[in-house]
Design goal:
Bound molecules: adenosine-5'-diphosphate, magnesium ion
Distance between the termini: 61 Å
Shape: flat
Order of helices and strands: EEEHEEHEHHHHHEHEHEEHHHHEEH
Largest sheet: 6 strands, mixed
Radius of gyration: 25 Å
Strand content: 25-35%
């Protein structure tokens, strides 16, 4: 291992034994990560991204096995450890302390019957053998650092009382509590709104810099990788199809799969007559993929036809309120204006996009028409 290198994965192969025989989930993976460096692993669902990270954490499902290769890790004491053959007891010391993981769905990793604060405090009490008071104080500081509001209140809250973005912030606080050297984030923003996603990405990036953590950021979204990582590794069906620095891969992707991933993102300033898919690039009969753009004139003509008739649905000044009563002795009535004076028309053959962050009233508006 080179000086300053944190992780060195060499020819990693992972297989599962299933009823239908062996599944080779990861094949010949090579990955190197320096201290404080960030790499994005990109690939469609089922390409082996999560299995790779679970192998690093020693958390492979019981029917999965590392069949070949090695995972070298340099710990805080500068000793090099072979994670591919580490015992569970040694992993327990590493997890949360040296290597932490954030998952896509925080509810799968937060315990629903313990308060958020207690769950974070416990990690520090276990690894650093500190008192509850000291752990509580540090948890409140961490909550503050991940920009949670009303930290004392959140400490006492149960996971279900928090929004998706807040739960993910608690997870991040828990992951960084013991200042790990390596943070693995497995699709940490996939379940969140775009606006919340942006703030979480910014938070992860700034914490990574501040703590000088190595980061493996897993996603199926190339756009997200460009924001957080310096290097990219592209996986497809268990194999690495391309690896390099972010700029090179975006400017000149070499593999048809990567070219497809980049080309599939719908363009903002043009209207292709159909959207590209990865299969356009990976199928055998692919000549040069050509899709014509719809011109302004063609669009104007189509709109003229579309809007010539009467609307199919015409919504005028629609409001929906939810009234709820809380308390038995002195009930307090609260009114939520879920939809507030909304008007729009929908024409035959038209597609109307309803956009807005979580809780803004999209679904409430939609179910009015069912
Ligand atoms: P990704 O995270 O890229 O979506 P995964 O790493 O979860 O993909 O899965 C990679 C492959 O491993 C998939 O083909 C999946 O079906 C297979 N796999 C994952 N877990 C198991 C398991 N417990 N048993 C059998 N196959 C599995
Ligand atoms: Mg996954």
């Amino acid at each position: 291992m080179l000086d300053g290198q944190l992780l060195h994965i060499d020819r990693l192969n992972i297989s599962f034994s299933t009823e239908n025989g062996m599944v080779h989930a990861v094949q010949d993976l090579q990955l190197q990560l320096m201290k404080g460096e960030s790499i994005g692993i990109v690939g469609e669902s089922g390409s082996g991204k999560s299995i790779t990270s679970l192998a690093i954490m020693g958390l492979l499902p019981s029917n999965g096995k590392i069949t070949e290769g090695s995972i070298l890790y340099r710990n805080k004491q500068q000793q090099i450890q072979q994670l591919a053959s580490l015992k569970e007891q040694q992993f327990q010391h590493l997890r949360g302390n040296e290597i932490s993981m954030i998952f896509q769905e925080p509810m799968t990793s937060l315990n629903p019957v313990h308060t958020c604060g207690m769950q974070v405090a416990e990690v520090m009490m276990w690894h650093e053998k500190i008192s509850f008071d000291a752990a509580r104080k540090r948890t409140l500081q961490l909550f503050d650092q991940v920009m949670l509001p009303r930290v004392e209140e959140i400490f006492k809250s149960y996971p279900h009382q928090l929004s998706g973005g807040q739960k993910q912030r608690v997870m991040i606080a828990m992951a960084i509590a013991c200042k790990p050297q390596l943070l693995i984030a497995d699709e940490p923003t996939t379940a969140l709104d775009v606006t919340v996603q942006k703030t979480i990405l910014e938070l992860l990036k700034s914490l990574q810099k501040e703590y000088q953590m190595g980061m493996i950021f897993i996603t199926h979204d190339l756009g997200v990788v460009a924001q957080v990582a310096q290097k990219i590794l592209v996986m497809y069906k268990g194999k690495t199809v391309e690896q390099g620095n972010v700029k090179d891969i975006f400017n000149a992707p070499q593999h048809p799969y990567t070219q497809g991933l980049i080309a599939c993102k719908p363009p903002m300033h043009e209207r292709p007559s159909r959207l590209l898919t990865v299969a356009d690039f990976t199928s055998d009969q692919q000549a040069k993929v050509q899709v014509e753009n719809i011109s302004h004139q063609q669009r104007a003509q189509a709109h003229q036809q579309l809007y010539a008739g009467k609307p199919l649905l015409s919504v005028q000044d629609l409001s929906t309120v939810f009234v709820s009563k809380k308390g038995l002795i002195k009930p307090v009535t609260t009114t939520v204006h879920a939809v507030d004076h909304v008007s729009f028309d929908v024409f035959k053959g038209e597609t109307l996009g309803l956009v807005g962050e979580s809780g803004c009233g999209k679904s409430t508006l939609g179910v009015r028409f069912l």
